[in-house]
Amino acid sequence: MFTASDSGFHDTFGNAWGWTEDNFNGYPGFQTHPYYDDFSDPSFDGFHNIIVGGSWASTGQQASWFNRASFRRHFFQHVGFRLVSSINTSDIPPIRVISSKVHILSVGSKENMCLLPYTHKNMFVPTANKQILNDTAGNLNKMLYKQYGVISNNYYGNLAEFVDGTMHDNNPLQSALVLGCATGRLAFHLSRTFSKVTGIDYSSRFLEAAIALKRDGTFEYSDNTHTKDNSSKTFDDSWSKKKVVVPFDIDRSRVLFKQLTWIPNELKDFDLVVLDFLDRVMNIEAWLLRLWKIIVPSAIVVIVSPTDWNDEKLASVIGQNLKCVDSIIMVEDCDGVEHIAKNVTTWKTKQN
Q: Fewest CB atoms within 10 A around its CB: which of 294, 319, 330, 341?
């Protein structure tokens, strides 16, 4: 169809996708866009490779040698053949492979299998998705201790009491949503009041613990709040076993946990929404934009945000549809290990 390339080949672009050995990943400083927060970063897992160009079945936009896409390595649609040449094995391969382990819900941790005949340390880079990096066993134990192990001035207990106080004038109380449910404490608490509670998180490890608590009512974790000499408190791997027990007066069947990296259309008609993981998501604005679309007109929305996201900054994103009716500073004091100030705001629809 076209004239030959300098090498004498005809129509090499657009007839078949070209697989590469590079894992799909973000460049240094990568940031998502709030309108499409989950488009690329969920694929920064080491199991998606880059394919370039397009195939005979692609649209014109894809049938370009500038096109880049990510697919798992078993994706053989529109398969074709390429002629390639070997590189000098004494050179560092111009390849980037993700070295970070990924924890998959109900499957466990999986390490990227590099299939190359030879490798070099410079080939391996961490994932650009901080949510994958933070999904560790240590952070799971830390969260379980924060939610269930802290006895005095428990932040999550204080947040539950605060949320209870916002709902005294609202009736009926049918459906609640916790965005950032972590290991489930607030979701279980709200089931005392609401007939249906949905807990959402992106963390596979957090959700595995929450799902186990829903199923069994108990879950063991490791508590390392003291070092061996009991002189100071830290979070590390030398933990003693502790058990979480869901209170017997909680109807666990009222609670449903899901893993999501965005707010889809299936989430809707909630009387209460609590958003409590803006400090650990990739893009804060992306989780704020659709809040007003998933609630009933009389609903309450409680947002926990970093202190630099105060009510004025939040209003710049959601103020067209929601109005702030209360704002306080709440401190997460984890037995003296951490002191983190958080901005807690309450919102209602402007028509309410």
A: 341
Beta-carbon contacts of 346 under 8 Å, excluding residues fewer than 6 positions away, are 166, 300, 301, 302, 324, 325, 326, 327
Asked if residues 304 and 284 have their Cβ atoms less than 8 Å apart, the reply is no
Helix (H, G, I), strand (E, B) or coil at 333: strand
Please, is 330 exposed, middle or buried when counting C-beta atoms within 10 Å of its C-beta (0-12, 13-18, 19+)?
middle
Cβ(273)–Cβ(322) below 8 Å: no
pLDDT in tens, 129-158: 999 999 999 999 999 999 999 988 899 999
Phi, psi of 135 (to 5 degrees): -85, 70
Of 95, 257, 279, nearest in space to 191 by CA: 257
Which amino acid belongs to residue 125? V
Q: How far apart are CA 345 and CA 313, in angstroms?
A: 12
Those residues whose C-beta lies under 8 Å from the C-beta of residue 165, and which sit 6 or more positions away, are: none
> What six digits make up the tokens of 272?
């209460």
CA 144, CA 274: separation in Å to the nearest integer?
Answer: 19
Nearby residues of 9 by Cβ (< 8 Å), 6 or more positions away: 83
Q: Residue 246: left (phi > 0), alpha (psi -120 to 50), or beta?
A: beta
DSSP 27: P
Q: Residues 280, 233, 276, CA angle at the centre, nearest 5°?
A: 20
For 195-320, strand residue ranges (E) read 196-201, 218-223, 240-245, 255-259, 270-275, 295-306
Q: Give the 3-state secondary structure of residue 325.
A: strand
User: Crossing angle of helices 137-144/204-216, nearest 10°?
Assistant: 50
Which pTM does this prediction carry? 0.86
